[in-house]
Structure prediction request, 1142 residues.
Amino acid sequence: MSKHVVVIGGVALGPKAACRLKRLEPDTRVTLIDASKLISYGGCGIPYYISGDVSDHTQLQTTSFHMVRDEPFFKECKDFDVITEAWTESIDRKNKQVTVRLKTGEKQVLGYDKLVIATGSSPRDLKIPGQELPGAFAITNLNSAIEIKEMVSKGDVGKAVIVGAGFIGLEMAEALADMWGIDTTVIEIADQVLPGVVGPNMAKVAQEELEKNDVSVLLGEFVQAIEGDGKVQRVRTNKQTIDADLVILSVGVVPNSELAAEAGLAVSPRGGIQVGKTMQTSDPDIYAGGDCVEIENLITGKPAYFPLGSMANRQGRVIGTNLAGGRDTFDGAVGSFAVKIFDYGVAGAGLSIGSALREGFDAFSAQIIQFDHSHFYPEKDLVAFELVVERGTGRVLGVQGLGSNGDGVKGRVDAVAATLKYKPTVKDIGNLEVAYAPPFSSAMDVVNTAANAAENMLAGRSHPVDPITFAEMWNNRRENNLLVLDTREQGNAEPFVQKHPDYWKNIPQGQLRCRLDEVPRDRQILLVCNTGGRSYESQLILEHAGIHGALNLQGGMGLLTRFGLNPAEEE
Amino acid sequence: MSKHVVVIGGVALGPKAACRLKRLEPDTRVTLIDASKLISYGGCGIPYYISGDVSDHTQLQTTSFHMVRDEPFFKECKDFDVITEAWTESIDRKNKQVTVRLKTGEKQVLGYDKLVIATGSSPRDLKIPGQELPGAFAITNLNSAIEIKEMVSKGDVGKAVIVGAGFIGLEMAEALADMWGIDTTVIEIADQVLPGVVGPNMAKVAQEELEKNDVSVLLGEFVQAIEGDGKVQRVRTNKQTIDADLVILSVGVVPNSELAAEAGLAVSPRGGIQVGKTMQTSDPDIYAGGDCVEIENLITGKPAYFPLGSMANRQGRVIGTNLAGGRDTFDGAVGSFAVKIFDYGVAGAGLSIGSALREGFDAFSAQIIQFDHSHFYPEKDLVAFELVVERGTGRVLGVQGLGSNGDGVKGRVDAVAATLKYKPTVKDIGNLEVAYAPPFSSAMDVVNTAANAAENMLAGRSHPVDPITFAEMWNNRRENNLLVLDTREQGNAEPFVQKHPDYWKNIPQGQLRCRLDEVPRDRQILLVCNTGGRSYESQLILEHAGIHGALNLQGGMGLLTRFGLNPAEEE
Prediction:
């Protein structure tokens, strides 16, 4: 009799592993079990289904050639059996069988030669009183999404509260506010949006974009209770009470590893099933992958949790290959991500500056802003780019980008991400050979410029100040005895000088060498220009003239204004 | 007295090296010499200046903050001297001095401590009779560009001939045909456009795009003479005579290395100045970089010539660092490029399939077509992607992409390009961790799918046929005893079956296992679907059923129709 492979879980990794296996070993018998009726869907598409960009939920379940991936599809096109609405109760490793409770209540025991655990993840449970009320949801599956879409499309939702400003929280905020005009508030316990994945400056730019699009963002705030009479009506936080018809809890997910743990498989203290590079668990006949496992973070070398659909798909293929007797490996991940926030694309890979410091790296970050295409080419957009670097070694630990050309931002992040596992230094990224033509990039592309800026900091030549620190210093300009030295041409600087004659002075960079006597020695100088290039150049001129201690604003006025601070327009 | 550095050449590398040096060592005296009045311009922007996208040529010479990079700019902002319209006649290495002929005719001898040769390149001279006629140009400098722009904007050009279908030739074709409505013909001696940089299938897709936009493309043809009475009137090729008011010779460039050779510096047989990784020539006091040098091709390990503005800028920074006593290196290049051809962006890196075979690699290529964004996301475009792979090792030697989302194409090529120097295999690229979110990519992105397709070929599982071979076989379908087995659903296949009932048969992939008896054993089967996925799956089903020899069409009907072949619409 041919080999029998049982796959538990049918969203992303499970079907991928099963399909790959069947292509390699058509004679192997495969049975896929899922607890839901809806399988093999693009879970990452849920916000776009709710927004209406994707009109029908079956679209998330269809192939690119418009076939719905349901039980008959897998039987006919992929030649394996799918049992839906079936709950896997236990794994008996000794006898190599799983016990499944069917929707009829009947129990079925399936023998296996090899087993794949693809049980995915569940929403992190904050145990908030009232979270069980109708109108409160944690979006992790298509069933909840269908309910929410029904509520919003019927016009039942005037106000929504989203708890958690991670990827899904922000995607949902856009879906509700932009497409349905719902009064939407995002509550985040951390002091920034996208905590842990971008630095505070980029987070502030993203937050500005949310607020510009009428999404309220509450930081450093957390939900104590969801209240209402038979349905959600209010959210009570540590600071206030907010009316809401809909509450979405998007505070992250945790691996579904109970089944594995009960079967005695190695599970990490943080709950992820432990797997090796071949995606085998502590039992070599059992594979696991996707949202239920931990893999190596290739930056830190430590086990990490990356619940991402793309990861699940790639791991699924590795498992399929290995089930068929191959020996493929999945070496770990650097945590590449992308997220659309209204007009901006935000992407990143590796560590954010916050994560790097928390992981114990002696790290700093270089922030730049630059056009995605040649500055003389008519179609272009500014890209904010941040490189996280280890002092001493110059190793690049992470990268984040943001801009309105989302494909361009993602492409640049991907280029750096692709090198991260090879432990590149800033010099490697400074010479990274990205393709150049004026309609698509500059001769010195964003990635090169960012690395060169980092190299100048590393060498102690560039003494930067980030927008957050600049804003703090500016807000206390009198106490800080501050003078902003604007190194742009007069036309750009004039409105600022007019507005703040005591704190904003203009000396264009080209005149600085001849006007050094106008630079006060007794004040804290902050050098600014449009993007950070001329202010760096000016800093070097001051240093060479013996005027030390001036700081140059990273990303210049371009980043500062996107960041929400425009001293020329202050009240 | 402070060190004196002389830089010969002021377009891209020269100013970059000089500026970097001055930032690091403000006390060093720098003199930059250029033969032209116009310096420090973005030469790659010339086609966009001629098209009118860039309205004024000074825009190519301005910084991103709108300052023209002329002599006063470099003096005031960068603190070094520039001498324009000055021809460097010789280098006296023994006495460390250069002799310069000024525009006055006067000669000047400049002593140097360190010298930078940034003499760039000149158009390859085909020595075509008549090439000196007014109206015939080789575009390598801004002066020619200004003349051409004047001709076209005055309406003096009704018909133009472009000789050479490389990057600049095709960019110029677009500039003339699209923006000025000029009847434009491109003549290329090779049998494809973009020879040496993309494979023949992608070249054919690019050619279709050119022809769709009224550019005539003549392949396998070469110019024997340019004729006319006091100005260009006709071009005579080996096959015909074509009327023309304007002829642009864009048949590549050769390094300007005479000065270096005469000074006894090592110059390669192909004419490039030889430099080490520090960009020093055979004389350690003399650096060279940009279009006049050869560097290592990191794929082949051999010296190679990469005349690209981006390369010059990055090398310029390395030279600047080293002039200031640093020790930076430029390790070589993989030849990343991008080019816009009407609605398409085309990008690549490493070797094309043709170059790989010429270099002696036992190479093949995998071609796919896939959406750039999730297939369920409303905004999306197909990307054609080709991966060039070495048999045996599975090493990825090159990548090329094409699609209407140029930023997305470039980003994907850059991600693969970034890894090439680390000698990745198809498994590395199959798991390349590019960022995923539905508005920007698929869970299995284009790069992953291309590598997985290559891996399946490498393993002997996938037996592909490329569009060119498919077209040849199809054109001789009777002699080849061909049957196209269309594995799509009936709606897609029907028009083809109707048109060619004897040669086109439809069995949807999901039905193939049950309808194997309908598959003839005595005919050459060509399997097709939309993109190549279901035809591969069908091939495996046939193989498993003992029906061998069927071939599946790479990139499917999606690539074939872009390639210009649509059997349903044949006459």
